[in-house]
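Dear colleague,

Thank you for sharing your sequence with our group. We've completed the structure prediction you requested, and as agreed, I am returning the results in plain text so they can be pasted directly into your records. Please verify that the sequence below matches your submission; if there's any discrepancy, let me know and we will rerun it promptly.
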Amino acid sequence: MKKLITLASFIFAFSFAPAALAGGDGECHFHGSKPAAESVVVGCAGQNKAALIKAGKLDASWQAVKHDKAEVVEGKKGKEWKVTFKNPAVTDKSKETLYMFYTVPGNFIAANFTGQ
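Please find the predicted structure tokens below.
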């Protein structure tokens, strides 16, 4: 009887707990295969760029740089989003263009200066 009361208490308590869901508004983690809108991918690219700056992987001069182009391209594993940022203020011209790649649903894949 004690086990039954304990079990019922747990069920009752967890039935009123809020559900944890990934990919809510403002987050950049998506499930499923529904293609993301360009505006969503560009927003996520801005968030990822800011995170790279904060982590010291990108110079602070990238902070004010807006995206130049967003397009769906053919990647190694099929179609993917490619978001391009151009920063003419950098001294190393080989790192003037930043490319960020996302799955079609909008999940971050990688960022680099080669576009590959």
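Summary note from our side: The CA atoms of residues 7 and 115 lie 55 Å apart.

Kind regards,
the structure core
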